Amino acid sequence: MKKLKKTFFWAGLAGLIMITGCASGPLVDPINFPVHDEPTTVPLAEIDFGDYSFDEYTASPDWRSQIIYFLVTDRFADGDPTNNDLGYGEYQPEDIEFYHGGDLQGLAERLDYIVATGSTAIWLTPQVANQWLSPAYSRRGTRYGGYHGYWAQDFYAVDPHLGSLNDYRVFVREAHARGLSVIQDIVPNHMGDYYTEEGAPNDPPGIPPAPAFPFDDPSRASEFFHFGGDDIYTTGFAGLLDDLNTESPYVIESLIEIFKWWIKETDIDGYRIDTVKYIPMAFWERFIPEIRAYAASLGKEDFLIFGEAYDYDNIINKAFDASDEKTASYTGTEEAPLFNSMLDFSITGAIHEVFLGKSVNASGSGELSPFRAISERYSSRTMGYYTQESAWQRVNFIDNHDMARWMYTQKSQRRPKQPLPGFDHPLHSPRNPSTLLWDRAGFQSAGGHQNFLRSLSDLRVRFRPSRFGGEKR
Ligand SMILES: [Ca+2]
Ligand SMILES: [Ca+2]
Ligand SMILES: [Ca+2]
Predict the structure, then answer these.
(1) Which of the ligands is closest to the CA of residue 78?
(2) Contact 331/366 with Cβ under 8 angstroms?
(3) Which residues make up the environment of ion ligand 2, defined by Cβ < 5 Å?
(4) For residues 110 and 255, what is the distance between their CA atoms, to the nearest angstrom?
(5) Chain centroid to CA 307
(6) Which residues of 404-438 are buried (b: 16+ CB within 10 A; e: fewer)?
(7) Residue ranges for the chain with pLDDT beneath 70
(8) Closest CA to 342 of 381, 376, 300, 372
(9) How far is CA 334 from CA 137, 329, 398, 471, in A?
(10) What pLDDT score does 444 carry?
């Protein structure tokens, strides 16, 4: 109990920092780090993109103290303009629905910039070869680009817009050389949109028009994918993105092999798994232990696997978030652990409601105070739903690529004076890795953006309770 109280104290301190704000003064002093207004770049000539293989795998870091830089590779840096336009009109940098040219070479060249923000890990959007153009999801009824990576076409290839498998290995090597871990975003739930809801090939087809090995036999499409139906595992995907039949032994074994292969071939340190709720638990009970055991056999004893279960309750007036129980179910049991981390939508939902919502009674009378509303979310971690390893290893974030950006929402709701609490939260939630989708909006003065974010990450590094709460290690 004593330990718990300490934990809540530091969680409380983090909450207090959020609520009071600290915009009027420096968080740490002095701050010893280089200030860069523009991203630091490493000249291409200094990185060897020649054939590369490795003999030794990189061991897992202590995930609790990591600061994860999340990026959409297509939108980060263009290191090779020759891979931008592959001849289908998919490269349209003036239009957000199409490819913008970012690639692995551009990312590898700018790793020093990521280091300078204080980040210790990178989470990048899926690198697998994608369906480049598809009618699915276009707001204008035209084609939409697969620049984001979540529409797999070939699970065994890097998308040529991003580079080659060798480019990927070089990026991971260069990241590791700078102390950065690499977390790959993967999607076992679905591929691109190749079939209609009835199982007929799409007309007109997307580009490229068909899935590759091991899902490349059209005569077995009904074995590979779910068609029709309205159960919770297919809703929202069957008519558009093709939902993999994760009950099929062939599909299960294929996906296990695919995602072992990427670890073996690239030395990555973790997976972020998309759309976890749309796959039955029986699949995770096979898939997760296999992947974790395989990674451990390569010396990666704590291969991070955090899932996206986009779900949280309205927390105001509630001391308990029922969605926590559901999210926690993916972490398994102490005897049979599954995911060793999950994205923490519960805390993020609370932060958004407190700082952006309209239902909060700031005085706290008759309702949970904003402070309490947030701290109650932390208490859910000790209610026994999560496994021990996952409870304090959940990944924090303030916004992501499926949400309106934090700074945008603040602005649109005319609450422009509270940017700091949102950024502060992920960095000072104790005993959790923290994700930052660095939001450059609002930090455009000379040196301001990087300086500001580095000061927050620096505080997390220097202030041990920011990482580990009151825990003695
Ligand atoms: Ca490019
Ligand atoms: Ca479809
Ligand atoms: Ca599914």
Answers:
(1) 1
(2) no
(3) 193, 195, 242
(4) 32
(5) 9
(6) ebbbebbeeeeeeebbbbbbbbbbbbbbbbbbbbe
(7) 1-46, 137-142, 229-239, 312-322, 356-373, 379-383, 404-453, 460, 463-473
(8) 381
(9) 40, 12, 29, 20
(10) 39
| Among the bound ligands, the one closest to the CA of 244 | 3
Q: Say how many Å lie between the CA of residue 96 and the centre of ligand 2.
A: 23
Q: Within the chain, how many helices (H) and strands (E) appear?
A: 15, 11
> DSSP letter at 333?
-
Q: Ligand 3 centroid to 186 CA: how many Å? A: 14
Specify the residue for token string 């770049």. Answer: 41
pLDDT given for residue 449 in this prediction: 57
Whole-number Å distance, alpha carbon 162 to ligand 1 midpoint, is 7
3-state secondary structure of 329: helix
CA of 148 to the centre of ligand 1 (A): 14
- Please tell me the number of the ligand nearest to residue 73's CA: 1
Strands 144-145 and 133-134: antiparallel
Which-ligand-closest: CA of 229?
3
Q: How much is the CA Rg of the chain, to the nearest whole Å?
A: 22
Virtual torsion, Cα 305, 310, 311, 316, nearest 10 deg: 100
CA 69 to ligand 1 centroid distance, Å: 20
Q: Tokens 């005569």 correspond to what residue?
A: 219
Residue 458: predicted pLDDT: 72
Kindly give, in sequence order, each residue whose CB lies less than 8 Å from that of residue 35, ignoring residues fewer than 6 positions away: 447, 450, 451
Continuous H helices in 128-247: 165-177, 221-224
At residue 285, the pLDDT reads 98
Q: State which amino acid sits at residue 179.
A: G
Cα(221)–Cα(238) distance, rounded to whole angstroms? 13
Ligand nearest to the CA of 134: 2
CA of 333 to the centre of ligand 1 (A): 44
Neighbours of 45 (CB within 10 A): 6
> What one-character DSSP code corresponds to residue 273?
E
